[in-house]
Amino acid sequence: MSKFDERLELAQWVVDQATKSGASETRVSITRRRYVSLDYREREVEKLEESVENGLSLALYVDGKYSAHRTSDLRRDALRSFVEQATGMTGYLEKDPYRYLPEPKYYEGRSQQNLDLMDPNYGALSAEERHRMVQEVENAALDAGGDKIVSVEAGYYDSVSEEVVVASNGFVGTAEGSNFWTGASVTAKDEGDKRPSDWCWEGGVHRGGIVDPVAIGKEAVSRSLARVGASKIATEKLPLVVENRTSSRLLRFMGNGLYGRNLQQKSSYLEGKQGEQIASALLSVYDDPLIPRAFGSQLYDSEGIAAKRMPVIEKGVLKNYYIDTYYARKLGVDATTGGPSNIVFETGEKSPEDWMKQLGRGILVTGFIGGNSNSSTGDFSTGIYGFLFDGGQIVRPVNELNIAGNHLEFWHKVIGVGNDPYVFSSWRTPTIVFDALTVAGA
Protein backbone atom coordinates (compact mmCIF):
# COMPACT_ATOMS: atom_id res chain seq x y z
CA MET A 1 0.00 0.00 0.00
CA SER A 2 1.38 3.43 -0.99
CA LYS A 3 1.60 6.13 1.66
CA PHE A 4 -0.43 8.30 -0.72
CA ASP A 5 -3.36 5.89 -1.08
CA GLU A 6 -5.49 7.24 1.75
CA ARG A 7 -5.21 10.83 0.54
CA LEU A 8 -5.77 9.83 -3.07
CA GLU A 9 -8.98 8.11 -2.04
CA LEU A 10 -10.05 11.21 -0.10
CA ALA A 11 -9.27 13.48 -3.07
CA GLN A 12 -11.35 11.28 -5.38
CA TRP A 13 -14.19 11.33 -2.85
CA VAL A 14 -14.11 15.16 -2.87
CA VAL A 15 -14.18 15.16 -6.68
CA ASP A 16 -17.27 12.94 -6.53
CA GLN A 17 -18.91 15.21 -3.98
CA ALA A 18 -18.28 18.23 -6.20
CA THR A 19 -19.85 16.45 -9.17
CA LYS A 20 -22.92 15.61 -7.07
CA SER A 21 -23.12 19.28 -6.04
CA GLY A 22 -23.26 20.43 -9.65
CA ALA A 23 -19.63 20.98 -10.69
CA SER A 24 -18.87 20.31 -14.34
CA GLU A 25 -15.16 19.74 -13.62
CA THR A 26 -13.08 19.61 -10.46
CA ARG A 27 -9.46 19.51 -9.41
CA VAL A 28 -8.45 18.60 -5.86
CA SER A 29 -5.02 18.70 -4.26
CA ILE A 30 -4.23 17.60 -0.72
CA THR A 31 -0.92 18.73 0.75
CA ARG A 32 1.03 18.08 3.89
CA ARG A 33 4.06 20.20 4.77
CA ARG A 34 6.37 20.29 7.77
CA TYR A 35 9.07 22.88 8.24
CA VAL A 36 11.62 23.84 10.89
CA SER A 37 13.31 27.23 10.95
CA LEU A 38 16.09 28.41 13.29
CA ASP A 39 17.71 31.85 13.62
CA TYR A 40 20.75 32.52 15.79
CA ARG A 41 22.23 35.85 16.88
CA GLU A 42 25.08 36.41 19.37
CA ARG A 43 25.35 32.65 19.88
CA GLU A 44 21.77 32.44 21.14
CA VAL A 45 18.54 31.25 19.54
CA GLU A 46 16.70 34.32 18.30
CA LYS A 47 13.78 32.55 16.67
CA LEU A 48 12.57 28.97 16.42
CA GLU A 49 9.62 27.93 14.29
CA GLU A 50 8.20 24.51 13.65
CA SER A 51 4.94 23.82 11.88
CA VAL A 52 2.95 21.03 10.30
CA GLU A 53 0.33 22.12 7.79
CA ASN A 54 -2.37 20.04 6.13
CA GLY A 55 -4.67 21.47 3.54
CA LEU A 56 -7.02 20.75 0.68
CA SER A 57 -7.31 23.00 -2.38
CA LEU A 58 -10.40 22.80 -4.55
CA ALA A 59 -10.78 24.18 -8.06
CA LEU A 60 -14.37 24.22 -9.30
CA TYR A 61 -15.73 24.70 -12.80
CA VAL A 62 -19.49 25.15 -12.83
CA ASP A 63 -21.26 25.88 -16.14
CA GLY A 64 -18.40 28.02 -17.42
CA LYS A 65 -17.73 29.65 -14.05
CA TYR A 66 -14.57 29.12 -12.01
CA SER A 67 -13.53 29.47 -8.38
CA ALA A 68 -10.74 28.23 -6.09
CA HIS A 69 -11.05 27.38 -2.39
CA ARG A 70 -8.90 26.00 0.41
CA THR A 71 -9.53 24.40 3.80
CA SER A 72 -7.46 22.77 6.52
CA ASP A 73 -10.36 20.73 7.90
CA LEU A 74 -10.09 17.30 6.25
CA ARG A 75 -12.95 15.58 8.09
CA ARG A 76 -15.45 14.22 5.58
CA ASP A 77 -18.49 15.82 7.18
CA ALA A 78 -16.76 19.20 7.10
CA LEU A 79 -15.56 18.63 3.54
CA ARG A 80 -19.04 17.73 2.33
CA SER A 81 -20.38 21.04 3.60
CA PHE A 82 -17.32 22.88 2.30
CA VAL A 83 -17.79 21.49 -1.22
CA GLU A 84 -21.52 22.21 -1.30
CA GLN A 85 -21.05 25.82 -0.19
CA ALA A 86 -18.13 26.42 -2.58
CA THR A 87 -20.08 25.01 -5.51
CA GLY A 88 -23.09 27.14 -4.66
CA MET A 89 -21.01 30.32 -4.43
CA THR A 90 -19.36 29.60 -7.79
CA GLY A 91 -22.74 29.84 -9.46
CA TYR A 92 -22.86 33.57 -8.73
CA LEU A 93 -19.69 34.36 -10.69
CA GLU A 94 -19.34 35.52 -14.27
CA LYS A 95 -18.77 32.96 -17.00
CA ASP A 96 -15.35 32.65 -18.57
CA PRO A 97 -15.35 30.45 -21.69
CA TYR A 98 -11.58 29.94 -21.52
CA ARG A 99 -11.49 28.61 -17.97
CA TYR A 100 -11.66 24.83 -17.72
CA LEU A 101 -9.34 21.95 -16.92
CA PRO A 102 -6.41 21.25 -19.26
CA GLU A 103 -7.20 19.04 -22.21
CA PRO A 104 -6.13 15.48 -21.26
CA LYS A 105 -3.59 15.47 -24.13
CA TYR A 106 -1.37 17.66 -21.94
CA TYR A 107 -1.24 14.95 -19.27
CA GLU A 108 0.20 12.42 -21.69
CA GLY A 109 3.86 11.42 -21.85
CA ARG A 110 4.61 12.03 -18.19
CA SER A 111 8.11 10.86 -17.33
CA GLN A 112 8.47 7.90 -14.97
CA GLN A 113 11.94 9.07 -13.94
CA ASN A 114 12.88 9.02 -10.27
CA LEU A 115 13.89 12.63 -9.60
CA ASP A 116 15.14 11.72 -6.09
CA LEU A 117 13.66 14.85 -4.50
CA MET A 118 13.03 13.33 -1.07
CA ASP A 119 15.80 12.62 1.42
CA PRO A 120 14.81 9.28 2.98
CA ASN A 121 16.66 10.20 6.17
CA TYR A 122 14.73 13.40 6.81
CA GLY A 123 12.84 11.89 9.73
CA ALA A 124 16.07 10.89 11.45
CA LEU A 125 17.38 14.47 11.63
CA SER A 126 17.41 15.50 15.29
CA ALA A 127 16.86 18.89 16.87
CA GLU A 128 20.43 18.75 18.18
CA GLU A 129 21.78 18.27 14.65
CA ARG A 130 19.80 21.24 13.35
CA HIS A 131 21.13 23.47 16.12
CA ARG A 132 24.66 22.18 15.62
CA MET A 133 24.68 23.14 11.93
CA VAL A 134 23.54 26.72 12.46
CA GLN A 135 25.87 27.09 15.47
CA GLU A 136 28.82 26.00 13.34
CA VAL A 137 27.92 28.60 10.72
CA GLU A 138 27.56 31.39 13.28
CA ASN A 139 30.63 30.50 15.31
CA ALA A 140 32.79 30.32 12.20
CA ALA A 141 31.54 33.73 11.07
CA LEU A 142 32.02 35.37 14.46
CA ASP A 143 35.48 33.90 14.88
CA ALA A 144 36.57 34.88 11.36
CA GLY A 145 35.13 38.38 11.55
CA GLY A 146 36.23 39.34 15.04
CA ASP A 147 36.00 43.08 15.74
CA LYS A 148 35.73 43.87 12.02
CA ILE A 149 32.06 42.97 11.92
CA VAL A 150 28.94 44.40 13.49
CA SER A 151 26.66 41.38 13.49
CA VAL A 152 26.00 37.89 12.21
CA GLU A 153 22.53 36.55 11.48
CA ALA A 154 22.79 32.80 11.04
CA GLY A 155 19.96 30.53 10.06
CA TYR A 156 18.88 27.01 9.29
CA TYR A 157 15.76 25.76 7.51
CA ASP A 158 14.40 22.43 6.39
CA SER A 159 11.06 21.23 5.09
CA VAL A 160 9.32 18.16 3.77
CA SER A 161 6.17 18.18 1.66
CA GLU A 162 3.78 15.69 0.13
CA GLU A 163 0.99 16.28 -2.38
CA VAL A 164 -1.69 14.30 -4.14
CA VAL A 165 -3.72 15.72 -7.02
CA VAL A 166 -6.88 14.31 -8.61
CA ALA A 167 -8.86 15.94 -11.42
CA SER A 168 -12.25 14.89 -12.73
CA ASN A 169 -10.94 14.50 -16.30
CA GLY A 170 -8.48 11.77 -15.45
CA PHE A 171 -5.39 13.40 -13.97
CA VAL A 172 -3.83 11.71 -10.91
CA GLY A 173 -0.49 12.76 -9.51
CA THR A 174 1.64 12.40 -6.39
CA ALA A 175 4.78 14.28 -5.40
CA GLU A 176 7.07 14.62 -2.41
CA GLY A 177 10.21 16.54 -1.64
CA SER A 178 12.54 17.88 1.01
CA ASN A 179 14.78 20.95 1.40
CA PHE A 180 17.73 21.76 3.66
CA TRP A 181 19.40 25.17 3.99
CA THR A 182 21.86 26.90 6.26
CA GLY A 183 23.80 30.14 6.00
CA ALA A 184 24.48 33.59 7.37
CA SER A 185 24.25 37.29 6.62
CA VAL A 186 27.13 39.38 7.95
CA THR A 187 27.29 43.14 8.48
CA ALA A 188 30.76 44.70 8.58
CA LYS A 189 32.17 47.91 10.05
CA ASP A 190 33.13 50.72 7.70
CA GLU A 191 33.77 54.45 7.78
CA GLY A 192 31.09 56.59 9.38
CA ASP A 193 27.68 54.97 9.32
CA LYS A 194 28.41 52.67 6.38
CA ARG A 195 27.53 49.06 7.13
CA PRO A 196 28.25 46.82 4.13
CA SER A 197 26.72 43.39 4.30
CA ASP A 198 26.72 40.17 2.33
CA TRP A 199 25.63 36.58 2.73
CA CYS A 200 26.29 32.94 1.99
CA TRP A 201 23.59 30.26 2.06
CA GLU A 202 23.90 26.71 0.78
CA GLY A 203 21.54 23.76 0.65
CA GLY A 204 19.95 20.99 -1.32
CA VAL A 205 16.93 18.73 -1.58
CA HIS A 206 19.02 16.19 0.33
CA ARG A 207 20.90 16.89 3.57
CA GLY A 208 24.17 16.30 1.70
CA GLY A 209 23.69 19.61 -0.08
CA ILE A 210 25.07 21.27 3.05
CA VAL A 211 28.70 20.20 2.82
CA ASP A 212 30.62 22.40 5.27
CA PRO A 213 28.83 24.81 7.65
CA VAL A 214 32.16 26.26 8.83
CA ALA A 215 33.12 27.18 5.26
CA ILE A 216 29.69 28.78 4.76
CA GLY A 217 30.18 31.04 7.79
CA LYS A 218 33.67 32.05 6.69
CA GLU A 219 32.51 32.81 3.16
CA ALA A 220 29.75 35.10 4.44
CA VAL A 221 32.36 37.07 6.41
CA SER A 222 34.81 37.19 3.53
CA ARG A 223 32.19 38.57 1.16
CA SER A 224 31.05 41.18 3.67
CA LEU A 225 34.56 42.42 4.51
CA ALA A 226 35.45 42.60 0.83
CA ARG A 227 32.82 45.33 0.45
CA VAL A 228 34.42 47.61 3.07
CA GLY A 229 35.54 50.90 1.54
CA ALA A 230 33.29 50.67 -1.50
CA SER A 231 32.63 53.89 -3.39
CA LYS A 232 31.46 55.20 -6.74
CA ILE A 233 33.61 55.56 -9.81
CA ALA A 234 33.25 58.10 -12.58
CA THR A 235 30.78 57.23 -15.33
CA GLU A 236 32.61 55.01 -17.79
CA LYS A 237 31.95 52.49 -20.52
CA LEU A 238 33.11 49.14 -19.15
CA PRO A 239 32.53 45.42 -19.69
CA LEU A 240 30.58 43.64 -16.96
CA VAL A 241 31.35 40.23 -15.52
CA VAL A 242 28.13 39.34 -13.67
CA GLU A 243 28.66 36.76 -10.92
CA ASN A 244 26.81 33.45 -11.26
CA ARG A 245 24.75 33.69 -8.09
CA THR A 246 23.36 37.09 -9.05
CA SER A 247 23.09 36.93 -12.85
CA SER A 248 19.62 35.38 -12.54
CA ARG A 249 18.36 38.86 -11.57
CA LEU A 250 18.99 40.12 -15.09
CA LEU A 251 17.44 37.02 -16.63
CA ARG A 252 14.31 37.43 -14.51
CA PHE A 253 14.04 41.03 -15.74
CA MET A 254 14.24 39.81 -19.32
CA GLY A 255 11.86 36.93 -18.64
CA ASN A 256 8.95 39.22 -17.78
CA GLY A 257 8.15 39.32 -21.47
CA LEU A 258 7.94 35.53 -21.81
CA TYR A 259 4.63 34.89 -20.04
CA GLY A 260 1.33 34.13 -21.73
CA ARG A 261 -0.55 36.68 -19.65
CA ASN A 262 1.64 39.54 -20.88
CA LEU A 263 1.51 38.26 -24.45
CA GLN A 264 -2.29 38.07 -24.43
CA GLN A 265 -2.64 41.51 -22.85
CA LYS A 266 -0.25 43.09 -25.37
CA SER A 267 2.18 44.03 -22.60
CA SER A 268 5.18 41.99 -23.73
CA TYR A 269 8.11 43.42 -25.66
CA LEU A 270 8.71 39.85 -26.91
CA GLU A 271 5.32 39.50 -28.60
CA GLY A 272 5.82 38.16 -32.12
CA LYS A 273 9.52 37.51 -31.54
CA GLN A 274 9.36 33.71 -31.47
CA GLY A 275 11.91 32.38 -33.96
CA GLU A 276 13.82 35.67 -34.01
CA GLN A 277 17.29 36.54 -32.72
CA ILE A 278 16.75 38.36 -29.43
CA ALA A 279 20.19 37.81 -27.86
CA SER A 280 23.79 36.94 -28.61
CA ALA A 281 24.34 33.58 -30.30
CA LEU A 282 26.38 32.66 -27.21
CA LEU A 283 23.20 32.53 -25.12
CA SER A 284 21.27 29.26 -24.91
CA VAL A 285 18.77 28.83 -22.07
CA TYR A 286 16.62 25.78 -21.32
CA ASP A 287 13.84 24.96 -18.91
CA ASP A 288 14.58 21.47 -17.61
CA PRO A 289 12.23 20.02 -14.96
CA LEU A 290 13.74 16.53 -15.07
CA ILE A 291 17.10 17.06 -13.34
CA PRO A 292 17.53 14.67 -10.39
CA ARG A 293 17.87 16.41 -7.00
CA ALA A 294 17.31 19.90 -8.44
CA PHE A 295 15.19 22.51 -6.68
CA GLY A 296 12.75 23.11 -9.54
CA SER A 297 12.35 19.52 -10.70
CA GLN A 298 8.88 18.06 -11.21
CA LEU A 299 7.09 15.41 -13.24
CA TYR A 300 4.14 17.73 -13.96
CA ASP A 301 3.46 21.42 -13.52
CA SER A 302 0.82 23.16 -11.42
CA GLU A 303 -1.88 22.32 -14.00
CA GLY A 304 -0.77 18.74 -14.51
CA ILE A 305 0.99 19.34 -17.83
CA ALA A 306 3.60 16.60 -18.27
CA ALA A 307 7.05 18.03 -17.61
CA LYS A 308 9.60 18.05 -20.39
CA ARG A 309 12.80 19.87 -21.29
CA MET A 310 11.99 23.02 -23.23
CA PRO A 311 14.34 25.34 -25.11
CA VAL A 312 13.64 28.96 -24.23
CA ILE A 313 16.51 30.62 -26.09
CA GLU A 314 18.83 28.71 -28.42
CA LYS A 315 21.92 30.46 -29.74
CA GLY A 316 20.13 33.74 -29.12
CA VAL A 317 16.90 32.75 -30.91
CA LEU A 318 13.65 32.85 -28.93
CA LYS A 319 12.15 29.35 -29.08
CA ASN A 320 9.30 29.19 -26.56
CA TYR A 321 7.15 31.23 -24.21
CA TYR A 322 5.69 30.20 -20.84
CA ILE A 323 2.01 29.75 -21.63
CA ASP A 324 -0.50 27.93 -19.43
CA THR A 325 -3.69 26.41 -20.84
CA TYR A 326 -5.87 29.42 -19.97
CA TYR A 327 -3.82 31.93 -21.92
CA ALA A 328 -3.08 29.37 -24.64
CA ARG A 329 -6.81 29.24 -25.37
CA LYS A 330 -7.05 33.01 -25.44
CA LEU A 331 -4.05 33.24 -27.76
CA GLY A 332 -5.14 30.32 -29.94
CA VAL A 333 -1.87 28.42 -29.45
CA ASP A 334 -0.70 25.24 -27.70
CA ALA A 335 0.21 25.49 -24.04
CA THR A 336 3.82 24.93 -22.96
CA THR A 337 3.91 25.37 -19.18
CA GLY A 338 2.89 28.19 -16.89
CA GLY A 339 6.24 29.00 -15.31
CA PRO A 340 9.90 28.08 -14.91
CA SER A 341 11.18 24.89 -13.34
CA ASN A 342 15.00 24.60 -13.52
CA ILE A 343 16.68 27.22 -15.70
CA VAL A 344 19.90 25.85 -17.21
CA PHE A 345 22.44 27.31 -19.61
CA GLU A 346 24.86 26.06 -22.18
CA THR A 347 28.01 26.99 -20.31
CA GLY A 348 31.37 28.11 -21.63
CA GLU A 349 34.90 27.06 -20.75
CA LYS A 350 36.23 30.09 -18.88
CA SER A 351 36.04 30.98 -15.21
CA PRO A 352 35.26 34.52 -13.98
CA GLU A 353 38.97 34.97 -13.27
CA ASP A 354 39.83 33.98 -16.84
CA TRP A 355 37.36 36.53 -18.17
CA MET A 356 38.76 39.31 -16.01
CA LYS A 357 42.26 38.56 -17.27
CA GLN A 358 41.05 38.60 -20.86
CA LEU A 359 39.07 41.83 -20.50
CA GLY A 360 41.71 43.70 -18.50
CA ARG A 361 39.46 46.39 -17.02
CA GLY A 362 35.81 46.23 -16.04
CA ILE A 363 33.30 45.64 -13.25
CA LEU A 364 32.73 42.33 -11.49
CA VAL A 365 29.06 42.63 -10.51
CA THR A 366 28.22 40.77 -7.28
CA GLY A 367 24.84 42.29 -6.52
CA PHE A 368 21.96 44.50 -7.64
CA ILE A 369 20.14 47.30 -5.84
CA GLY A 370 16.47 47.92 -6.60
CA GLY A 371 15.74 48.32 -10.26
CA ASN A 372 12.78 47.94 -12.56
CA SER A 373 11.98 46.37 -15.90
CA ASN A 374 9.07 47.29 -18.17
CA SER A 375 7.60 44.14 -19.71
CA SER A 376 5.83 46.19 -22.41
CA THR A 377 8.84 48.08 -23.76
CA GLY A 378 11.81 46.03 -22.53
CA ASP A 379 13.38 49.09 -20.92
CA PHE A 380 15.14 48.47 -17.60
CA SER A 381 17.47 50.08 -15.09
CA THR A 382 19.08 48.79 -11.93
CA GLY A 383 21.73 49.66 -9.39
CA ILE A 384 24.81 47.47 -9.17
CA TYR A 385 27.71 46.91 -6.80
CA GLY A 386 30.81 44.76 -6.90
CA PHE A 387 34.46 45.33 -7.76
CA LEU A 388 36.48 47.31 -10.25
CA PHE A 389 39.15 45.14 -11.84
CA ASP A 390 42.11 46.39 -13.84
CA GLY A 391 44.91 44.42 -15.42
CA GLY A 392 42.72 41.40 -14.73
CA GLN A 393 43.03 41.94 -10.95
CA ILE A 394 40.47 43.29 -8.47
CA VAL A 395 41.40 46.85 -7.56
CA ARG A 396 38.70 47.94 -5.12
CA PRO A 397 35.03 47.53 -4.20
CA VAL A 398 32.48 49.81 -5.87
CA ASN A 399 28.85 50.62 -5.19
CA GLU A 400 26.01 53.00 -6.06
CA LEU A 401 26.51 52.45 -9.78
CA ASN A 402 23.72 52.13 -12.32
CA ILE A 403 23.14 50.43 -15.66
CA ALA A 404 20.16 50.88 -17.97
CA GLY A 405 19.07 49.79 -21.40
CA ASN A 406 16.58 47.80 -23.42
CA HIS A 407 16.53 43.99 -23.34
CA LEU A 408 16.26 43.72 -27.12
CA GLU A 409 19.67 45.43 -27.35
CA PHE A 410 21.23 44.50 -24.01
CA TRP A 411 21.33 40.72 -24.49
CA HIS A 412 23.08 41.06 -27.83
CA LYS A 413 26.02 42.41 -25.83
CA VAL A 414 26.73 39.02 -24.21
CA ILE A 415 30.30 38.09 -25.16
CA GLY A 416 30.77 35.13 -22.85
CA VAL A 417 29.14 32.60 -20.56
CA GLY A 418 31.10 31.14 -17.65
CA ASN A 419 31.78 27.55 -16.72
CA ASP A 420 30.25 27.91 -13.25
CA PRO A 421 26.46 27.33 -13.04
CA TYR A 422 25.14 28.29 -9.61
CA VAL A 423 23.86 25.08 -8.01
CA PHE A 424 22.08 26.54 -4.97
CA SER A 425 19.00 27.65 -6.90
CA SER A 426 16.55 26.38 -9.49
CA TRP A 427 17.99 29.15 -11.70
CA ARG A 428 21.35 27.57 -12.48
CA THR A 429 22.84 30.69 -13.98
CA PRO A 430 26.57 30.90 -14.72
CA THR A 431 28.70 34.02 -14.81
CA ILE A 432 27.53 36.12 -17.79
CA VAL A 433 29.91 38.55 -19.49
CA PHE A 434 28.72 41.69 -21.30
CA ASP A 435 30.62 43.89 -23.71
CA ALA A 436 31.29 47.51 -22.75
CA LEU A 437 28.22 49.19 -21.24
CA THR A 438 27.75 52.65 -19.83
CA VAL A 439 28.12 52.36 -16.06
CA ALA A 440 26.73 55.50 -14.45
CA GLY A 441 28.63 56.59 -11.37
CA ALA A 442 29.84 59.87 -9.89
UniProtKB/TrEMBL annotation:
Metalloprotease TldD/E central domain boundaries: 124-227
Domain of life (superkingdom): Bacteria
Domain Metalloprotease TldD/E C-terminal per the UniProt entry, residue ranges: 235-441
Pfam family membership, one: PmbA_TldD_2nd
One Gene Ontology term from the biological process aspect of the record: proteolysis
Record GO cellular component, one term: cytosol
Domain Metalloprotease TldD/E N-terminal: 28-87
One Gene Ontology term of the molecular function aspect: metallopeptidase activity
Family according to the record: Belongs to the peptidase U62 family.
Annotated protein name in UniProt: TldD/PmbA family protein
Organism from which the protein derives: Eiseniibacteriota bacterium
